[in-house]
């Protein structure tokens, strides 16, 4: 049997058409062909990010830019907004990098409260905030506009936003909300193989970076900016994935962003309805749920590992049995990327059959 079709929240399924686009003959990255490829990506990426700033392309996973953004922006003390495995880890990473770091910690499955962010920032001393829009481990979609509004009311405080599992599934308006960095990887809703991270930096973010010494090279914002002016990247990028990205941006343009958002909302609602039929409770609170993936609490008497195993052996579909400290006590199903009502229905029929 071939590898299972992925309904886990990243990497997600990659279409044969995308792989075909990626099999383009290799080109050198310091030539005209590459400049054209790079330039062709900008309008689509800027529309998705909601920015007029250049969108930089890093050959790394999202963590590279998550760490890099700290390295470029933190003067001394960072506030990490923690509500799940990835946001908790960002706090850990900030400390590992030697920064003074504090956190707002909410129970996994809860959302970050902008009022709590305001109260914490009022304590003073913070120059940067890290924030995860869609906490992939819990299925919570945090209040991006609310948190950005609070952080922006504190002058000279940078806001770094991870939109790893939300970008292109819901509107992101980087310029309007005043985020200083928006970042994501391509293995989630862009439905590409892992290996690229995308990010944009505000003017204020670049001004802050200018005063930070020891930014290194690989993730130095100024290296990205300098090269972007020539439609290029600081170092050799994963050119094959860039061809895949060019293909996917074409698909996204054809579909239209609004339709893409609506499709994710619809296919996500199908999974919610499936769970409700079987008595599975959603782990994230009403009103703050991701539309790209669903996290269910595993009922006490439910044999999750057999369910996942049978779904795979009988239908070759892969869902995910929870992440971090809620592994086993939750499970997650992704509808990100290219999934349609028809493909989600196939999964639902298969899950119904396996449940008996
Ligand atoms: C919200 C979030 N942030 C960060 C990451 C880390 O991404 P990567 O593994 O691409 O570095 C993930 C991965 O699933 C994620 O879901």
TrEMBL record:
Keywords: Aminotransferase, Pyridoxal phosphate, Transferase
Aminotransferase class V domain: residues covered: 21-296
InterPro entries assigned to the protein according to its UniProt record, in alphabetical order: Aminotrans_V_dom (IPR000192), PyrdxlP-dep_Trfase (IPR015424), PyrdxlP-dep_Trfase_major (IPR015421), PyrdxlP-dep_Trfase_small (IPR015422), SP_NH2Trfase/AEP_transaminase (IPR024169)
Co-factor(s): pyridoxal 5'-phosphate
Pfam families in the cross-refs: Aminotran_5
Molecular function GO terms recorded: transaminase activity
PANTHER family in the cross-refs: ALANINE--GLYOXYLATE AMINOTRANSFERASE, AMINOTRANSFERASE CLASS V
Family: Belongs to the class-V pyridoxal-phosphate-dependent aminotransferase family.
The name this protein goes by in its record: Pyridoxal-phosphate-dependent aminotransferase family protein
Lineage: Bacteria, Pseudomonadati, Verrucomicrobiota, Verrucomicrobiia, Verrucomicrobiales
